[in-house]
Amino acid sequence: MRVLFTSFGARSHVYNQVPLAWALHTAGHQVCLVSQADMAEVLAGTGLHHVVAGPRSDGELDAAGAGAFFENLEFDFTLHRTADMTLEHLQGVFAVFGGLVFPYSASDAVLDDVVRFARHWRPDLVVWDPYTFFGPIAAAACGAAHARLLIGLDFIARMRSVFLGLTAQQPAELRDDPMEEWLTWALGRFGGTFDEQLVTGQWTIDAMPESMRLPVDVDYHSMRYVPYNGSSAIPDWVHEPPKRPRVCVTFGVSNRDSGVDIPDLLSASLDAVAALDVDVVATLNADQLTNVRSIPDNVRVAEYVPLHALLPSCSAVVHHGGIGTFSAARVYGVPQLIVDSRPGNFPDPGFMGSYVSDAGAGFGLSQAEVSPESLRDRIQLLVDDQRYATGAAYLRAEALATPSPNEIVPALERLTAQHRTVT
């Protein structure tokens, strides 16, 4: 079969799709990746067939612009307690989603290009990033089956579920649905009509732990997270056994690409490890180091090291709650200290902090709790107390018991045959 992957225009989103794309490729299926033109080099680096959609953004849709865009939105997209999600709030959220967020990732030019390519290439299945609604629109326009591949927790489906329940209680004239209005307009350009599966997929592939899954009535299919970090050189020192416990300090490519400024957190993290008997690898670039006061003698700064190469030698990792870092640490059984460094509108790293804490595999800290002392105490515990290594080993075993991307290919073949209308 032919499988088209659609990704939001950010490296971490493309990276999230590559292991499953390669699993389908090695199973003998034809695979193609598509994203905005700004991702051309990233797509080329995957070694897979790929196309780009729309013109290059010239800075308007680049990762830094996207970060600033989401950071300045006034709505909180992370509410998960039903009592917090009022109809008025959710109507506002979906008005922002339908009017700004999704058109931001699917301009008319991008949408036209993706639908045109899909009608030409005729995929049997479209696997789409939750932030790329040009994926299900293209699937509907050419008769393909379609499935979401989550990147993180399913906040969109959770909010949508509560929203639909609250809307059903209203008189017909008050059942305003901005999301349906936008998708109806977008798909109507290609002769289609709205279906709720355009929002949550015909089924959903989820690489997050089942115990973290939000209460939503969606057809989920679990898949093991497999780290993919793009093409990069691996320094020789990574393969040398560390003489002391090795600690990784990283705040991810997403924060770096989107221009999130966290100098206080960086300084606090480096101050925290200065007095510890550990070897630290801090993956920071020149811009991130601009406002850092000093670099301790036990810290090795490396602009970028693939986590799949670095984490197996680490006794602990300090990070920002990025999905890729959290998931890679889980797969490699590394105790985690998760520090909330993201804007309030992003999915809450507190979920991940609670998860590793409940498993005895680490800690979560809010921004208000961050200090050199609080970081130092927790890093020391993660390195010295065997209970955290045991907890992390449990999470690793849990992850490895989940079907790999290769192992879920037969299920995708079966579901595609059930859902596609293309012949």
UniProtKB/TrEMBL annotation:
InterPro entries registered for this protein in UniProt: EryCIII-like_C, EryCIII-like_N, Glycosyl_450act, Glycosyltransferase_28, UDP_glucos_trans
Keyword Ribonucleoprotein part of the UniProt annotation: no
Keywords attached to this entry: Antibiotic biosynthesis, Glycosyltransferase, Transferase
SUPFAM superfamilies: UDP-Glycosyltransferase/glycogen phosphorylase
Presence of keyword Ubl conjugation: no
Top-rank taxon: Bacteria
Pfam families per UniProt: EryCIII-like_C, EryCIII-like_N
Erythromycin biosynthesis protein CIII-like C-terminal domain sequence ranges: 269-415
Domain spans labelled Erythromycin biosynthesis protein CIII-like N-terminal: 22-252
NCBIfam families reported for this sequence: glycosyl_450act
Membership in a protein family: Belongs to the glycosyltransferase 28 family.
Descriptive protein name: Glycosyltransferase DesVII/glycosyltransferase OleGII/desosaminyltransferase OleGI
